[in-house]
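Subject: mismatched residue count in predicted assembly?

I count 397 residues in my input, but I want to confirm that the predicted structure covers every chain. Input:
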Amino acid sequence: MEAVGDEWRIGAMTRLWEIADPERGARIPLLSRAAAGIGSPEVRNVATIGGNICNASPAADLLAPLLALGARVHLCSADGDRWLEMKDFYKSAHRTAIATGELLTEIGIPRASCESGFGLSKYATAPQMGMTLVLSACVHLPGTGAYRVATAIATGRPIVTEATKPKSLEAVQDLLTESLRDGLASGAAARSSCHYARENRQAPDWYLVRRAQLAAREAIAQAWEGASGGTIS
Amino acid sequence: MTKIDVEITVNGRVEKLTVEPRWSLLHALREDLGLLGTKEACDNGDCGACTVLLDGRPVNSCLILAPEAHGCEVVTIEGLVNEDGAHALQEAFVEAGAIQCGYCTPGMILASYALLRDNPDPTEAEVRSALVGHLCRCTGYVKIVEAVLLAASRMVRQEVEVNG
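Triage response: the counts match. Full output below for your records.
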């Protein structure tokens, strides 16, 4: 992890334990907290950030945080290289925009999006080692005063919404969670294409949508508190 | 399939192996080196039975290809026993009755060893968090957690007695 211009750059082979480590991951606390919630210590000691996002599992815990942070990815091939915004990287379950012959080499994260309040809320099939069903990540952007939220029902594409200079916590929560509804509903409906979600069909679509909205409200509240100088839990 | 040569330090001894690229570290340890204390169960990174220390960190050896371990140091459960006998963790597992079939025990002990090395006085929650990747179908975890805390208290006491 190193500073290049106005970005933090993370190599694709960086292990999750390094990102989750409170000291090493302190520069990008949202990503650090998300990584700390993935799998077991044994898994985090082996798994990499590149593997987590290239596998493009709809349950991948780092997709939504990277979207909230406004990250981009560096792709290289024998024919050259390119930078791609994270929002254009994930296509659908287990499909990305990586072309044949390309490799992911590093991830760039704007430093400005790591310097204020953030929030993360997750709902999984078990508190630890469970499959993530809903995850929401929120970042306060101090330059514009905006709040950016990425929320996923882990069967579909994460939805990114943004509110500029909200007047109150309740206002930003209402605005952003309401604007999530349609996208989340289509994500919940996509469960038939996702094997582990089919195994969790006891949760109806409306419940997952509501749960995702509550996760987004919680993530926004945490980011608001952090941006206001409160303690980030 | 073409085999490749790898060199892995296992329990302090340099081992030269010729492996197929697709073999897991678990396969190499059990089938090539006969270290049967490392158990195979899910073969999928879910159960923790195959846990070993790779360069000091606990990993699921079923998820590591043997060639990936080239040049690395591996410690298996056999490596915890020294000339003084069983490790304090192993003794605590026996005393606390934290063993029934024993299949998950090597992985549990190695993960606990890594925890106590970095955090000699863990809370119960920290022990449970360190062992979250380990499944036991017999004991229900209570005695396992008690055994780790018992070993921790003894190791801390020993440290105080030795170093004052």
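The helical segments of chain A are 16-20, 29-36, 41-44, 49-54, 63-69, 169-189, 195-198, 205-227. Marking this ticket as 'not a bug'.
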